[in-house]
Amino acid sequence: MTAKKRGSAAIDLLLDDHKQVRQLIKQYEKMHEAASADEKQELAGQLCNEFLLHADIEEQFFYPAAREALEEEDLIDEAEVEHASARDLVEQIQAMQADDPMYDAKVKVLGEYIEHHVEEEEKEMFPKVKRAKLDFDALGQEMLQAKEAAQGRFLAGDSKRKTKGQGRSPRA
Ligand SMILES: [Fe+2]
Ligand SMILES: [Fe+2]
């Protein structure tokens, strides 16, 4: 095996997610004016799901490891608060129909929250974690497995899954 930089596996996986989420945000920006409500709902739904999946993995695996690796935990605290705000907005979007007059605004603001958040992770948190002397490769494996398992659940049709402990009954 070639020598790999410590931290790269876990962080590379998160960077890939960021790229994907950013693409969905851009795609929505580009298409929302011309798109049908169904198309918007589909794309925004994808964005919400990708974000939730990513946030779950970070909260369950990466942030706890980063807390141990870093001396100051402010960055992680802030990141968790940002996740919580984005999750709130995701729940609102998931509960709305795409022809709602506020739909585009909510998706746009969600996109802005996420852009700001991933930028801070990439510019501040990840470089610090990379410099910390911990082996994040095993963590990367764990994260990958958890992500694949969660994706499997999405593909099995559980796309409107509930976020931790917050049940939302589907519209009857
Ligand atoms: Fe995050
Ligand atoms: Fe992230």
Descriptive overview:
Helix content is 74%, strand content 0%. The protein has a single domain, classed as Four Helix Bundle (Hemerythrin (Met), subunit A). It is built from 5 helices and no strands. The chain is elongated and about 50 Å long. The chain starts with 7 loop residues before the first helix and ends in a 17-residue tail after the last helix. Helix 2 (37-69) packs antiparallel against helix 3 (74-95), helix 2 (37-69) packs parallel to helix 4 (103-131) and helix 2 runs antiparallel to helix 5. With 172 residues, the chain is mostly helical. The model is unreliable at 159-172 (pLDDT under 50). The protein binds fe (ii) ion (2 copies). One fe (ii) ion (FE2) binds at residues 14, 18, 54, 58, 118, 121.
Question: According to CATH, what is the topology?
Answer: Four Helix Bundle (Hemerythrin (Met), subunit A)
Number of domains: 1
- Percent of sequence in beta strands: under 5%
pLDDT averaged over residues:
87
| Count of helical regions | 5
- Sheet with most strands: none
Shape annotation: elongated
**What share of residues is helical?**
over 70%
Q: Assign the CATH superfamily.
A: nmb1532 protein domain like
Q: Which radius of gyration do the C-alpha atoms yield?
A: 17 Å
- What structural class results from the helix and strand content? mainly alpha
Distance between the termini: 54 Å
Number of strands: 0
Segments where pLDDT lies below 50 for 5+ residues?
159-172
The H-and-E topology, N to C, reads as: HHHHH
Based on the structure given, which CATH architecture is correct? Answer: Up-down Bundle
What compounds sit in this structure? fe (ii) ion
